[in-house]
Amino acid sequence: MSAPGASAPVPPVGAGPRPEFPALPAPSRWRYKPRRALWESKAVRAGALVLLLALCGLVILAMVREQTGTAGFLVGLGLAVVPVPLLIAVFRWMDRVEPKPRRNLVFAFAWGACAATLVAILANGFATEWLMNTIDVAGDADERSWGATFVAPVVEESAKAAAVLLLFFFRRRDFNTVVDGVVFAGITATGFAFTENILYLGTAFATDQSIGHKGLGMMTAGTFVVRVVVSPFAHPLFTSMTGIGLGIAAGLPPRRRRVVRVLIPVAGLLTAMVLHGIWNGSATLHPLGFLAVYAFFMVPIFGVLTWLTVWSRQDELRTVGAFLPYYQAAGWLTPPEPLALSSMRARGIARDLARRRGGPAAARAVSEYISFATSLAFLRQRAHRGAAAPDFSAREQELLHHLWERRGAAQPALAGAVTPPVRVGAGAVPGWGGPTAPGAPPVAGAGWGAPPVPGTPPGAGPVPGPGTYGPGAPGSGYAPGSGYGPGYAPGPGYGQYGRPSPQGQGNPVPGTGEMPPGNGGR
């Protein structure tokens, strides 16, 4: 015990307690898991949904097999599956910027293949019969024509739109842009077209067999060419109109009138019905008329949709590049990351670098890091537009937590993806933060390391991190004057989440004194 009046011993430098990060909760509270009622349980909902779709699938299987026979069903199944991998690959390519959870895509396909098809088969028959009893028609041919042109589009597009609407309401976190709407709608329509093609191709095969053809006769071959070769994108094209409407509505701020946010999806659904009706009606025309509708109406619309989707995909990358610099200024991301994450090429390079250095596990960590960072950018964009959800702060902290856990593998790989390879000396590591002297021992923590605490000078230590993350990672290694250090206030989202600071106010880009690019959002 010290003598009275003696001075207290001075603790050694660096022995004091680590600074706290008051905006972040303890690790046990990172996950946002509110208490839910029984029906709100994910397991209960998933079980009920799987049971419903399985029952619909069994019913539709029995109905198709009864109409086509076993041989017709197997032939139709084999031919109908041909375009499915191509269509799924196209929509997965559209979805590469912010990949959606596979369970959402599986649900969309299963709904289209099972539930929507069953509803369409049953409702089309009842609606066509009611229409024929109301309107005087000349014969069976006119009855089929009226049903295909005026009944089927309304019934089928409504049944397919139900899946996209369910995802819009119950998976709102994953439904942010026009691309999301097109992807969900396209996958749903692909499932619907798959089952419908089994029915049509199986029926055509049964017809060929009934008139004495062996193998694939003219009826089967013609149906295959029209439905699989010429128009595999027909159903996805129609339903994408509904997806575009819901995607636009998803980006509208709550302050917009509710009627506007309702009318836009309704307009998309009506457009899908009209396009579907025109396409079905063209099948009753002379072959030249059908080809004219196909060449001068459907193909241009498909081209416009393709252009819109590609533009929207690039716009998503611009959003990532515009909103991630806020987190870089706050110390959560290293300077190369916003640039690397806003480029699909750099993302691919980062995954390859991680795979070469750390194997599949490192590549998977980089992929997850990219996905979480992209979600973080869109979360900030929604707050900027005034459309932040009530759980904004919890969701933001959850995403930051996931980034922090994967930073060791992801940050050096992303830095290497946008850093030219350095080939000076034997110790140079291409694209991984610069050379080392020949024969020199490896530097501890090589790479970008952990960013410094916002508001502290360079070299003051790593971000203390959410909760306790062990002894701490090496510092960033930036020299004084690099601009990555003093003068940064707490990062966006701590306290009042709101919208990012307008241009000229708030956190500057490190080392420049200027605001991050793209403050205006979209």
TrEMBL record:
UniProt keywords, alphabetically: Hydrolase, Membrane, Metalloprotease, Protease, Transmembrane, Transmembrane helix
Biased composition (Low complexity): 497-506
Upper taxonomic lineage: Bacteria, Bacillati, Actinomycetota, Actinomycetes, Kitasatosporales
Compositional bias ranges of the Gly residues kind: 467-496
Residue intervals passing through the bilayer: 43-64, 70-93, 105-126, 146-170, 177-195, 233-252, 259-279, 291-310
UniProt feature, compositional bias: Pro residues: 451-465
GO MF annotation terms: metallopeptidase activity
Protein name as annotated: PrsW family intramembrane metalloprotease
Domain of life from the UniProt record: Bacteria
PANTHER family: PROTEASE PRSW (PTHR36844:SF1)
Chain segments carrying region Disordered: 433-522
